[in-house]
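Notes from hallway chat w/ T.B., transcribed later so I don't forget. T.B. wanted the structure written out for a chain they're using in a teaching module, and asked if we could keep both sequence and structure tokens in one place. Agreed to drop them here.
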Amino acid sequence: MFSGGNTTSWDVIGLGANSVDYVYVLPAYPQPSGSRAKMRVGAHFVSCGGQVATALACCARLGLRAKYVGVTGTDDNGRRIREELGRRTIDLTDAVIRDLPNQFAVILVEEQSGERIVLWDRDERLQLRDRELPPDVLCATRVLHVDDVDQEAAIRAARLAGKHGVVVTSDIDRTTDLTMELVRSVTVPVFAEHVPRALTGEDDPERALRKLRREHPGLLCVTLGASGAVALDGDRFLRSPAFKVNAVDTTGAGDVFRGGFIYALLGGRSPMESLRFANAAAALSCTRRGAMNGVPNLEEVTALLANGEVHSI
């Protein structure tokens, strides 16, 4: 389904969020009182991220031709994200520069587990506008990847690309009045763990996906963090466990999963093989600090697939 017969300019175009992350590594999560009300920061640094931007960074590192369509600011953070994406050979000719502060996040990483809390801010005026969607460009790719940050733009772009035979993947991380419309507009919805439960009322991922099957006939996928990932392929439920690694920062792991998933499907791997490949990419990203800083290369993913140990199901 991903091979395609048309000549395209890009392997993957990403439409959605970017961010500059201010990361603070802490010995434990803060609490409003007691010994954790004040604590010394163990380490701090600035790293580029954002849902779509990090997924594209992963695609580019794995060898795909990648292009970014989204809005950046005119401040230092906007310049930083454009420089970082450009350094990673991601095309920015259709990225929008708006005279506003760029999106940013403060990320608190718990030192022992690598788990993180994300505190973010984005000016509403950074939303991608109708006239800023490049129709010809969106149809000149093998895959369009969208997130749910600018949902209306994502839905319009997905429908446009889909009409021209482009496969559309997604990063669906929240639920709003438009979430089901976005789900129906894409080819392969990839949900964060909590979303299917919120949409269906089912705690069990398999039951939730089988309910969502009534709304979408294609491949449905859910990321489960340390528990790996699951998917519904037709009527067949797939479960792929996570790889065992020494996690130091889980920031961006779900975005890297999506980048790895896109690469694997474009390479002709089966849905089950693609889940496993994406899990390996995501696991490796957790062994380094920072979202884009954690993106692995193909040799690293291949080595973990060959020699890595997975958690028991």
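Follow-up for T.B.: The first strand starts at residue 10 and ends at 15. Might be a good example for the class.
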